[in-house]
Amino acid sequence: MSNPDTHRKSPVPVDQCGAALALDVLPDRWTWLILRELFYGVSRFADIQADIAIPKSVLSGRLTRIVENGLAQKMPYRDGAARTRYDYRLTPKGAALIPVILALMQWGDAHLKGGKPALALSDVETGEHLSVALVPEGRGLPLRRVTYEPIWDRPENKV
C-alpha cells in the first residue's frame, strides 16, 4: 500500500484507529499468551501458569483484565472437596481474536522459525490445510470449521 503524496500522514487518527484502541485492551505479551492458552483449551489458572511460566500475581492481574474487557468469562469448578476455583473460557469477543493469534503465529513461523510451523491448521469438513489471509468480506471460513494439529515436535519443524 502506498500513498502517492511525498508528505505522509496517517489516514486514521490514533484515537480513531481500531488497532491502536485494541492495544489498550491487549497491551502486552502476557495477555496474548494467556489468550493463546484459552484458544488451545487450557482454561485453569494453574495449567496456564505452568504452560507459560508466568508469575501468579501477573497471571491473576491479566486474567482479571481479560474478564473485565469481556474477552473471557470465569466458570466455577470444584475438584472433590477442594475449594471452588475458576477456569476461564473465551467469550465470542475473545474468540474473535483467534484469527489475530493465528496470523501472529503464521508470521512468526515464516519469519522467525524459518518456515517451520508449530501447528497444522485444517478445515474439519474438507481436510484442506488453512492459512490466515485477507479474503473478500463474508467469504471467510467460520472458526467452528478450523481445527489444529500440533506438529512442532516433528524433526523437520525443529529450529
TrEMBL record:
<dbReference type="InterPro" id="IPR036388">
    <property type="entry name" value="WH-like_DNA-bd_sf"/>
</dbReference>
<feature type="domain" description="HTH hxlR-type">
    <location>
        <begin position="17"/>
        <end position="116"/>
    </location>
</feature>
<dbReference type="Pfam" id="PF01638">
    <property type="entry name" value="HxlR"/>
</dbReference>
<protein>
    <submittedName>
        <fullName>Winged helix-turn-helix transcriptional regulator</fullName>
    </submittedName>
</protein>
<keyword id="KW-0238">DNA-binding</keyword>
<keyword id="KW-0805">Transcription regulation</keyword>
<dbReference type="InterPro" id="IPR002577">
    <property type="entry name" value="HTH_HxlR"/>
</dbReference>
<keyword id="KW-0804">Transcription</keyword>
<dbReference type="InterPro" id="IPR036390">
    <property type="entry name" value="WH_DNA-bd_sf"/>
</dbReference>
